[in-house]
């Protein structure tokens, strides 16, 4: 069966059909998937019953695997794979322990490092019968739809990204004082020109920023609030409904993503990050 790239009925995303990731990926297949990745930004490949080693091999066809910086969530056998599962998170252990749902606000992975990862891959090991979707926003279209006045305003601005940034949602994961003090930081253009396609996207990380470089807090918050309101709209969104053995890969330069916390059955995803290059 030949490979088919079938775009979703959504503002981004496509399914790759006719692929068995247990088979070796030839150069033509890798090129087709890479092109689909640039065109659609989020790719889903269903029914992939693959081992963790094979998942790492497949990811390696598309870039260099990066170590997970939060060691706490790393797989016991390798820090190149992390485990996403509210049931495994023990941050809130003790008699009142509750599952901890991570990443439930829109974000892009690792923007607070000078060289953020370019892509994230997830492999679904266990999924709830209902809920637990992952949401994606097309940040190229968000930029394209800005008024000319807004484009002129945002082009050329830089944004200060910080893991423990002042705009973070304080209801998220509890951070120790040490973690806050040593929080990684980076400065990136607010409008990112994608190195492979030349397309512009709004590049920001709502929960992991201090603000616009050189601007007062008030002006910076007003602009970022406005950009968030413009971005968080259904017309930019694809929502992935997980099934066991799904593999999903997305481009962190092109999309924001968010998990959902509307389930209480077990959910376990393996995650791999691919190294990126410095944004321009
Ligand atoms: C993530 O934020 O990387 C994970 C998304 C999810 O759990 O759905």
Question: What can you see in these coordinates?
Answer:
There is one protein chain. With 280 residues, the chain is of the alpha+beta class. It has a single domain, classed as Clavaminate synthase-like (Double-stranded beta-helix), CATH 3.60.130. It has helices at 27-40, 52-60, 139-144, 148-154, 177-181, 217-231, and strands at 4-7, 14-17, 42-45, 65-66, 74-75, 78-84, 119-126, 134-138, 158-162, 185-189, 191-193, 200-202, 209-212, 237-240, 247-251, 255-259, 268-274. Strands 1, 2, 3, 4, 5, 6, 7, 15 and 17 form a nine-stranded mixed sheet that branches. A three-stranded antiparallel sheet has the order 14-8-16. The longest helix is centred in the C-terminal third of the chain and has 15 residues, at 217-231. It is globular, with a radius of gyration of 18 Å. The protein starts with a strand and ends in a 6-residue tail after the last strand. The model has no long low-confidence stretch (mean pLDDT 92). The site of succinic acid has 8 residues, from strand 16 and strand 17. Succinic acid binds at residues 84, 103, 120, 134, 257, 259, 269, 271.
CATH topology: Double-stranded beta-helix
Overall pLDDT level: 92
Poorly predicted parts: none
Helical content band: 10-25%
User: How many helical stretches?
Assistant: 6
Major β-sheet, in short? 9 strands, mixed
- Which ligands are bound? succinic acid
Give the SSE order as H and E letters.
EEHEHEEEEEHHEHEEEEHEEEE
